[in-house]
Structures are given as C-alpha cells and as structure tokens.
Amino acid sequence: MGSWQRRSHRAGDLLARAAEVDGLAGKYSDFADAVLRERMGDFHEVFRRGGAPAKAQTLEALAAVREAARRCLGLNPFVEQLAGALALHENCLAEMATGEGKTLTAGLAGVLAGWLGRPCHVLTVNDYLVERDAAGLKSLYEFCGLRVAPVTAAMTPADRQKAYRADVVYVTSKELLADFLRDRLRLGELHNPERWMIRLVINPSRPPEGALVLRGLHTAIVDEADSVLIDEAVTPLIIAAARSNEGLKQAVELASKLSARLKREEDYTVDRRYGDVELTPVGMERVRLEGEVLPPFWRGQARREELIRQALVARELFHLGKQYVLEGVKVVIVDEFTGRTMANRSWREGLHQAIEAKEEIPLSDPTETLARMSFQRFFRLFPKLSGMTGTAWEAAGEFWQVYHLPVVRIPTHRPCQRVHRPDRVFVTEAEKWAAVAEEITQVQKLGRPVLVGTRSVQNSEMLSHQLFAAGLEHRVLNAKRFVEEAGIIARAGERGGVTIATNMAGRGTDIRLGPGVAGLGGLHVIATERHESERVDRQLFGRAGRQGDPGSAQAFVCVEDELLLRNLPAPHRKAVRATLRANAPGADLLARSAWKQSQRAAQRRAFKQRVGVLRQDTWLDEALSFAGMK
Questions:
Q1: pLDDT at 484 over 80
Q2: Which of 186, 406, 439, 629 has the highest count of CB atoms within 10 angstroms of its CB?
Q3: What SS3 class is residue 400?
Q4: Distance between CA 161 and CA 210 in Å, rounded?
Q5: Where are the alpha helices (DSSP H) in 24-146?
C-alpha cells in the first residue's frame, strides 16, 4: 500500500493540479483587497464545515491563497511549491530540495489547515525558526482571516496558553510534546473521557480544561520531517522532577574514582557499535574487592556493577565536545543529529551524574520521571499528519510503516547544477585534516565560499585552530556559538567566505550566493566525515546548488573515522588500511565499499532500534487501553 501511495504518478498528478491552480491565478489578480478578503471568508466557512464541498473547492481556495501570498509577501509561489502545499494538505511527506521554498509551502498548507477550525501546529527545528516563520508569514495568515502565534521555550504557561489558542501555531516538536505531557499531568485521571464527562456533569461551573495549555491535537505540518520523525523518534521526551539523593551522589563519585583505576581489555571491554561496556571476570573480581568503599546500599553485586559500568560508559563513550559541552560548572547535552545544545535536559538513570563526576564538577540532583512519551507515539496521535524535508526517499518505507505517511518527490524548480566529486580517502586523521585545510585554502583563493561540515564541536574547534594558524579567516558554527547560527549561515555564500559548521549546518536558513560568486563556481561543501545515515550526508551536500545555482560537494574520509570504528569489524578495517598504504590496485573501490557497508550496518541497527520502540509503543497503547488508562 505504501509503494502504491508513493508511486511516481502521484507527483505528476500533484504537479498537474498545481498547474491548474497556477492557471486560476488570473481570476483573483483583478480582485480588490476587500473583495479578495471576502472571498477568503467564504472559503473559511466552506472548509470549516468540511465534507465534499471543501474538497471540491481546494484548488480554487489555494489559488486565492497564492494571490494573497503575492500581495502580502511579495512572493509568487512556483508550481512546485503549490504541488508541495497540495501534498501537505493530503497528508503526504513532500521531499523538496534545499532552497526550494519550504517555508512558504508550509504557509500555504497552514492556511488551508487553519480554515478547518481545528488546532494546527507547524513544527520546525528551533526557536529562531519558530519566531522567524510565524512573524514572516503573519501578514498572509491575517489576510486569510487567521491568527498565527509562535511558542518558544522562554514563554510562561499563561503566554503559551494564549498562543495555543491561535488558528495556526509555530512550535518545535520538543516544546509541543512537553506541553502535551504537562497537560496530561494536570489532568491526572481526567484524561479518561468517561471521568471527564462525569466531572462536567457534577460541577459544570468548573470545566477541567481551564488549566490546560493546549486546545487539542489535530493537524501537524512537520518541517525537516526526517530529523523529527526518524532520527529523534527513538528518544523519549521525559518530564522529570529533581529529587535530592546524597547517597547516590556519594556512590557516583566513588564509582568514578574506582573506574579510573580499571584497565581497558584487562578489566573491561568496550562495544562502540552498541554503546556498551562489559566487565571481564578479572574486572568483576577487582570491583568486588574495591567496592567495599561504596555506601552499604550499593555494595550488592548487581548494584555495584551497574554503578561501575555507568562510570565506565561516561568515561569511554561520552566525550566533551561531542556528546556534551560545559557551560560554567554545568554539563549541557549536545543533540547528536542537529549539533545544537539542549538546555535544561539531562541523561537519566545516573548517567548525567556519572559524567559530572568524570568532569570533576558539582553533581546535580538526580531526577524522578513523572511522564514520558516517544515522538513516534506522539505523532501517531495526530489525525492529520504531513511533513517536508529535503531527504526522505531513503526512509520512505519506514515513514509509511510507522506513520502511514507516503513520500512524494517534488521536482526542483530549476535543474540542479551541483557537482559531486569522488570521496578522498586517507589512512590517518592527521593526513585527512591536513588535506581538508589545503582544500579550503585552494578553493578560497579562487574566491569561492566554502562550507565545511564536521560531526562534533571538538572537530570544528580543532579545524578552526588549524586555519587560524594558517592565517585563514573563517567563521565557526557549533553548539557553543548557536546564537549566531542564522547570521553565520546567511553570510556563508559571500565571496571567499569560509564557514565551519557542525551537523546543524543552518537547516531552515538559505545560503544565498554573493555577487559574482555564481560565475566562480558557487558554494563548495566539504564533509569531513561520512555519517551513519546517507540522509545526513545529503542534507549537508544539499546546501550547495540551491535553486539551480552552481556548486560542488566532496567528502574527506579516513580509516580512523568514527563511522568505521563503530560499524566495520577490525579485520576489515585492517585490510582497508593495508590496501590504502600499499596503494594497491582497487584500493579506492575497497574503501568505498567499506564506507557503504558501515553506513548500511549503522542504518540497519538504527532501524531495528526504532522498530523496537514502535513495538513498545504499540504494546503500551494496547495495554493501557485494555486497562482503561489510555
């Protein structure tokens, strides 16, 4: 069914209907503003009532909204953007390349959804884009008779409640799910419909919804849907409260000191592929002998070994500048997929305190879980779900299996001119980074702008020091400098500019080429590692060649990259290293095969993890429904 829903003819059908909408533009262009507003009011009423009349007038309505966008925003939507808006309105996931105008596309679909009279949430990846898009499209929504509002992390509950009463709300997925869970906590047992009705009958003067922030869930339009619905889907959002536990803090500090004396391979082994640490028999015996220093509660074998393993995981698998950064004496988590910091969030089950002990900073209070839900389960609650992204086709089957979202590929408005150069492969990291610096220097001398993508804050800072030493001016965008994100990315296309960015790479902000840059060859994108998912590679490369601009992209990889260390067996890595050192025939072919094998292994493992979460969510739905607690 999913294959049928995303068949190639569907995109052709959407484009044909979008061309029909484009042809209707002349009908509304002669209307005075007052007449067009009145017509918008008529469409509003038709869509609010729904049914066959609303479906029959969809193209007419979209043509009117198109004319409103031209008048209010000075933007004339392309046929491809109209096709994307139709795809969103029909609960599809539209794959639209970077720079193809997804913000306006979401705005067109948001108007149609807002007219339904049900809650409509447009979800994007950060608070900056939430505020920018809501403010940028406000005049369009108001012309169409709708109210739009942003919801950001800094807002108070009262301000949030007021904003959620708008017809269309721009918000991040994390803020929306957090508000949903907080509302569930406020409701308590009243989230059961029967209890809700009984409460209203007993005391109709005190409606239980008065304290709620949200007014319900109905329509969600998800920007950067691959990141939100796939990459982040397995991480549950947890509402927790801090609980003082001095005994645990003391035990964590002692365990951290004890773990520092253990020897890798002799006392414990590290499985980087699955992110786990196992004690050897020798290590278990050593922990037993030295564990007498632990508080009595933690001296039992199971608790003692769990505590030591947690300390070893913090030491071996969580690194400063990769998984987290320090802000003063506070550990701040870095989102693995976006490169952004996640303020006021912590790892659970003592891991956060174990990392603090490793960094020798004051330990925070552990937290107690009050409510939790995975994004997979949350987004399946929406009766009307759609999304957009530049990279969805590789996960089309999963989008259908999990969310019943068919992927539709919308063609670019102009042919893509981006040139993909073959990967450059090295044996060691030192060789790779030297080559990257040399490539940046050579391309910058031509006057072309360069965008360099790194996987971690640590690597971005290291490359920055290398370029400073070479006297090359550049800008750095990472989790430590996220406040300047939009400004840095907006200037990344200037002549001779060099920008180093972690995974975030300014998603949602266009890189426009400066004067004369197109004639020099456009933006050159360098990936300093391949990622676990090919989609993330495509996201970075997609920054070049926007809307038919010239551009190029190339990856620099080495045998010591994290992708191979975690996903390629040691004998295979040894063979690749030896073949490259000897410059043997077929070395490049073997190297390319190794990276493809590693990516496939990582993607299979991530998919299995997401399927496991899906099964757990399905079991919870069935179990809680049976127990009358859903």
A1: no
A2: 406
A3: helix
A4: 10
A5: 25-29, 33-49, 52-56, 58-73, 79-89, 102-114, 127-136, 138-143
Tokens representing residue 259 in the block: 């773990």
Task: Say how far apart CA 238 and CA 505 lie, in whole Å.
Answer: 27
Among residues 426, 563, 408, the alpha carbon closest in space to that of 91 is found at 408
Chain CA centroid to CA 384, Å:
20
Domains of the chain: 2-237+375-409 (3.40.50.300), 244-365 (3.90.1440.10), 417-558 (3.40.50.300)
Give, for 532, the enclosing helix (H) or strand (E): none
DSSP for 437-503, please give it. Answer: HHHHHHHHHTT--EEEE-SSHHHHHHHHHHHHHTT---EEESGGGGGGHHHHHHTTTSTT-EEEE-T
Average of per-residue pLDDT across 369-389: 89
- Whole-number Å distance between alpha carbons of 474 and 492: 10
Which span out of 169-173, 303-307, 557-561 was modeled with the highest average pLDDT?
169-173
Q: In the numeric block, which tokens belong to residue 445?
A: 């001398």
Residue 46: closest CA among 117, 122, 141: 117
State the pLDDT confidence band at 630, using cuts at 50, 70 and 90.
very low
Distance between CA atoms of residues 23 and 43, nearest Å? 19
Query: How does strand 407-409 pair with strand 523-527?
Result: unpaired
pLDDT tens digits for range 1-42:
777 676 667 888 999 999 999 999 888 988 999 999 999 999
Q: Which residues contact 223 (CB under 8 A, 6 or more apart)?
A: 102, 103, 106, 122, 123, 124, 125, 129, 387, 388, 389, 508
The answer to whether residues 444 and 472 touch, using CB atoms and an 8 Å cutoff, is: yes
Count Cα neighbours of 268 within 13 Å in the Cβ-side half-sphere.
Answer: 26
Yes or no: say if 175 and 151 are a contact pair by the CB < 8 Å rule. Answer: yes
Buried b (16+ CB within 10 A) or exposed e, 268-289: bebeeeeeebebbeebbebbee
The per-residue pLDDT for range 542-591, each reduced to its tens digit, is 888 888 899 999 999 999 888 888 888 888 888 888 998 888 888 888 88
